[in-house]
Design goal:
Elements lengths: L2 H27 L1 H15 L3 E3 L2 E5 L6 E12 L8 E13 H6 L3 E9 L2 E6 L16 H6 L4 E19 L4 E13 L6 E17 L2 E18 L4 E11 L2 E10 L5 E8 L5 H5 L3 H4 L7 E16 L6 E14 L7 E12 L8 E11 L2 E10 L6 E11 L14 E15 H5 L7 E14 L7 E10 L3 E11 L2 E10 L1 H7 L3 E9 L2 E2 L6 H4 L17 E14 L2 E13 L2 E11 L2 E10 L7 E12 H7 L13 E14 L12 E14 L2 H10 L6 E2 L5 E7 L2 E11 L2 E9 L5 E10 L5 H16 L9 E10 L4 E7 L6 H78 L3 H52 L1
Parallel strand pairs: 5-7, 6-7, 25-27, 26-27
Antiparallel strand pairs: 1-3, 2-3, 3-4, 4-5, 4-6, 7-8, 8-9, 9-10, 10-11, 11-12, 12-13, 13-14, 14-15, 15-16, 16-17, 17-18, 18-19, 19-20, 20-21, 21-22, 22-23, 23-24, 24-25, 27-28, 28-29, 29-30, 30-31, 31-32, 32-33, 33-34, 33-35, 35-36, 36-37, 37-38, 38-39, 39-40
Helix pairs in contact: 13-14
């Protein structure tokens, strides 16, 4: 080897070694900059808490890119979503271009990979979303001067084993996804690129308005897409979507050139077996679907073509047809046969009002018994035109002949339905009920259901619902479950407007019962008695309903508590239950109750109560409502009864226990024949004073007022009369049982024994040493300052006036705490009112806008109808003139034509006048409703 070659080899080795050394060192050299950049970017951009436990940097596996890994990454919400984890994952891997890091200007991201991400996404009533965590830009100048240092030059996105929960309280949508894997690849820096995506979900559940449409369904999707990234146009080459056994193929294109979506898409089901569509029925798919025998054919296809924006919809159509469908479980004697479906949903484009739902046929026979239905809906927004029918009968005792029940499940009873609804919503709006046909009923008789979960069974002797244009009448409802019985009747109004327009559903019911055993509705774990209350979860109140329930219940059992003579009214509206004049007997006394319980935010329900308690037994109360002991821990050592009047407000936690820091209340308390024995607080006071007066207390009945602020109980000064002595008390107890009390004790000198006299002499000497001359008379006045805790109190004791300003200082602290909370409550009230006004104004404007749109449509329709009458009159007149055979008859024909046109004009004018009045009334009604909303918000 010559000298030049050796030299070249030598330098090549040096260079290679240098490169390897750089690959080892560079991740550590730039580690700090990259990690800090990630945190800075998150803090700068997000209203959330971003954290990760560890990170890693690697250059070997992705050269010339860094691979940055963030381990145990989490994003936790703030504000309404405080402590709620939006997303967490085992690892986030980001591939960052090495040379972009060296230049230090912009960090270019090539690949993102998420391993085991878990996401919990919420939308609260009102539309506030937990994922809306991007900070708003408040300074456009600063934003322009400080652009993000991260640039997305993505070529691949990978998601491994994701779990996602989407809980939308506002739209009543719940989605749960388990074990999702997703890959997306393509060159997003190119003008044109081929995108390839694969998605696999092992379990997908979808619930809307309480109805489960998919339950643990399997979903898979593959798509190859030609992407014109400059024009945001995507053309589908090969796209397949399967849900359980149903396979759909898509073709066409989709574009987003601006705020408008443009599309020309088609889909169809290439497999035509009925079993494919049957797999979407949760009750069938989840119960031995693989072994189910089926026959019949399926046709499913549709399209969407045109533009979608704020002004309208594209034309679309979805068609489903099933012929001669049948399924039978192999171990059962009978089948569900003759399943036929002919349904189409279509829209010619433009308005949502152009949508037509046409279910011409819905037929099936269960064990030979037919069920038939049909549905036609047009103009669903402006004036729903409805024609619906349902007729069928089901003997529930024969269900087991064609559908398998779980082991030890029992089902019997007779269900019948014969319903016909036909007409326009405008007839209901104008109270022209004679033009709207709604008749029929639904009935359940002798229904019985038992299972291992409901061993005592649920039975309905009879339940009947009658349909009229105005309302659904619950003629009767008589049920038993376990030991409980329920009898109800009532009426549901506005049900058609609720179904088609999502308007308010109104109802009035009466409920009577001889016994409601709530223990029968809870598991053994929930009813097990512990020192703490049974674990519960938030009971959510429904939205968009206005129900009033009048109750008369003889007895209610809850845990070991018996409640009798429950009477009063409960109304449900705007996700809030309002109690009015609700009375009951419980805990050895009586309770009158008013107030509300609201779940506008289900994570933090609000409870507002006005309580009038009469002679509750103290020990029974603590046993059944142990959380009350937090506010009066000394009650554990007390017996007797108490009465109270209380205004109470608090936020509840998700286990339905109070968030004690939010409790605010005020009221008055009276006691009846109480005894306090062996209480640590008073035993310690007796030890300090060497007086046995406090070891067993039987004070005269107390009457005191109090406030609960931020979870602390503040008492106004009150007297405890003990034989010949009087103890005046003022101060507060906190939830952690810390105390601050100022007490003034007046004790006859005759109550002092030898040891107590020594204490008294010592107190006198202390006062004299401070220059305070006190000569105790027949009555000794002692000041006591109590701090520490209820169980471990600390006392400062002195003769009256000898403790200086300590007593005043404690009083000032209490007053300051109350005033601070008062200002906070006022500010919160102002914010609540302003928010309520904003929402009311928005709703009012929406009502008026919708009314004006409908009013304009009414006027246009009336004008069109009038013009049609005039045109028909003119046509008829011209026909009469043309048919006239001589001048005399022609003249008569002309006069008749003139009269026809005049009459048509009058009818047209009348139509326009009536339409104008109807339109004006509609707008005025909307304005009045809006004003009512705004006034209610102000109040």
């Amino acid at each position: 080897m010559n000298k030049t070659a050796k030299k070249a080899l030598k330098w090549s080795g040096i260079v290679l070694a240098f490169i390897i050394l750089l690959m080892i060192l560079l991740p550590f050299i730039f580690r700090k900059q990259i990690v800090q950049a990630v945190k800075d970017e998150a803090n700068k951009s997000l209203n959330a808490v971003v954290d990760f436990k560890d990170y890693s940097l690697n250059l070997f596996c992705s050269f010339p890119n860094f691979q940055l890994g963030l381990e145990d990454l989490s994003v936790v919400g703030i504000g309404e979503f405080k402590d709620d984890t939006l997303v967490k994952m085992d690892q986030l891997q980001v591939s960052v271009n090495l040379f972009s890091v060296i230049s230090g200007e912009t960090y270019t991201i090539r690949k993102i990979q998420l391993d085991r991400p878990i996401a919990y996404v919420q939308v609260l009533p009102g539309g506030k979303a937990s994922w809306d965590i991007m900070k708003p830009s408040t300074d456009t100048t600063t934003a322009a001067e400080e652009p993000s240092k991260f640039k997305l030059s993505l070529q691949k996105l990978v998601i491994n084993n994701a779990s996602i929960v989407y809980d939308d309280y506002d739209s009543q949508i719940f989605v749960k996804i388990d074990s999702m894997n997703h890959t997306l690849s393509g060159d997003f820096t190119a003008d044109f690129t081929d995108l390839s995506t694969e998605t696999d979900i092992r379990s997908l559940s979808y619930t809307y308005e309480g109805i489960t449409y998919l339950n643990k369904a399997k979903l898979a999707m593959e798509a190859d897409v030609d992407a014109d990234l400059n024009n945001y146009k995507y053309t589908l080459k090969k796209t397949e979507l399967s849900v359980n056994e149903l396979l759909l193929t898509f073709e066409g294109w989709f574009a987003m050139p601006d705020s408008t979506y443009d599309m020309d898409l088609k889909f169809s089901a290439p497999k035509t077996d009925f079993k494919n569509i049957l797999s979407l029925v949760p009750a069938v798919y989840m119960t031995g679907f693989e072994s189910v025998k089926t026959s019949g054919t399926l046709a499913l296809n549709g399209f969407a073509k045109g533009k979608y924006d704020d002004n309208g919809l594209p034309a679309f159509e979805v068609m489903l047809k099933v012929d001669n469908g049948m399924f039978q479980y192999p171990d059962l004697p009978k089948a569900v046969t003759n399943i036929g479906i002919d349904a189409k949903v279509s829209n010619k484009g433009g308005s949502e009002d152009n949508t037509i739902i046409d279910v011409k046929k819905l037929h099936l026979e269960m064990g030979g018994v037919p069920v038939d239905g049909s549905l036609y809906v047009s103009t669903p927004v402006s004036d729903p035109n409805i024609d619906a029918k349902l007729k069928g009968k089901m003997d529930l005792s024969k269900v087991t002949e064609y559908y398998p029940l779980e082991k030890n499940e029992q089902l019997s009873g007779l269900f019948t339905a014969d319903i016909a609804v036909k007409g326009r919503m405008s007839y209901i709006d104008k109270e022209e009920y004679e033009k709207f046909d709604a008749k029929g009923n639904m009935m359940v008789e002798n229904f019985v259901y038992k299972s291992p979960d409901v061993p005592e069974g649920t039975s309905i002797s009879k339940a009947e619902l009658q349909f009229t244009p105005q309302a659904l009448d619950l003629i009767s409802f008589a049920a038993k479950t376990g030991k409980s019985d329920l009898n109800a009747k009532g009426k549901v109004e506005n049900y058609l407007a609720y179904f088609f327009r999502d308007e308010l559903l109104k109802g009035t019911f009466s409920l009577t019962s001889s016994l409601i055993d709530l223990n029968g509705f809870m598991s053994d774990e929930e009813t097990a008695t512990t020192e703490e209350s049974s674990a519960m979860s938030v009971i959510e109140m429904p939205g968009n309903i206005d129900f009033t329930l009048n109750t008369d219940i003889k007895k209610v059992l809850y845990d070991k508590m018996e409640i009798t003579s429950v009477k009063g009214q409960v109304s449900l509206k705007d996700r809030t239950a309002v109690m009015k004049d609700l009375s009951m007997n419980m805990l050895g006394g009586a309770l009158n109750l008013g107030g509300s319980y609201g779940t506008q935010n289900p994570q933090a329900p609000k409870l507002d109560l006005i309580l009038d308690i009469s002679k509750f037994d103290i020990q029974q109360t603590l046993k059944n409502l142990p959380s009350l002991g937090k506010f009066a821990p000394i009650a554990e050592k007390a017996s007797g009864k108490f009465s109270a009047k209380l205004d109470y407000a608090s936020v509840l936690k998700t286990d339905m226990t109070p968030d004690y820091g939010s409790v605010n209340a005020a009221g008055a308390l009276q006691t009846h024949g109480i005894t306090i024995s062996n209480a640590g607080f008073f035993n310690k006071l007796s030890d300090e004073l060497k007086i046995n007066l406090f070891r067993s207390l039987t004070p005269s009945d107390l009457n005191l007022s109090f406030k609960i602020v931020n979870g602390s109980v503040f008492t106004n000064p009150f007297d405890i009369k003990l034989s010949k002595s009087v103890l005046n008390v003022e101060g507060f107890t906190k939830l952690d049982e810390t105390i601050q009390y100022v007490m003034k004790l007046s004790v006859p000198r005759s109550e002092f024994g030898g040891a107590a006299n020594s204490v008294l002499n010592n107190l006198t000497s202390q006062a004299t040493a401070k220059g305070i001359e006190i000569n105790p008379g027949e009555t000794v006045n002692i000041d006591i300052l109590a701090t520490g805790t209820v169980t471990k109190p600390v006392f400062k004791i002195g003769l009256k006036g000898s403790l200086g300003n300590l007593a005043d200082d404690l009083k000032d602290q209490a007053k300051q705490a109350i005033e601070e909370k008062k200002e906070e409550i006022i500010q919160e009230a102002k914010e609540t009112v302003n928010q309520a006004l904003d929402e009311a104004n928005k709703k009012a404007q929406q009502l008026i806008s919708e009314a004006e749109t409908k009013a304009q449509q009414i006027r246009v329709e009336a004008k069109n109808a009038g013009d049609k009458l005039i045109a028909e009159a003119e046509t008829q007149g011209q026909k009469l003139i043309a048919e006239a055979k001589n001048p005399l008859t022609k003249a008569a024909a002309k006069e008749t034509a003139k009269q026809l046109k005049t009459e048509a004009q009058k009818k047209a004018d009348k139509l326009n006048t009536e339409a104008d009045k109807q339109a004006t009334d509609l707008v005025n009604k909307a304005r009045a409703e809006g004003d009512k909303l705004i006034n209610a918000a102000k109040q």
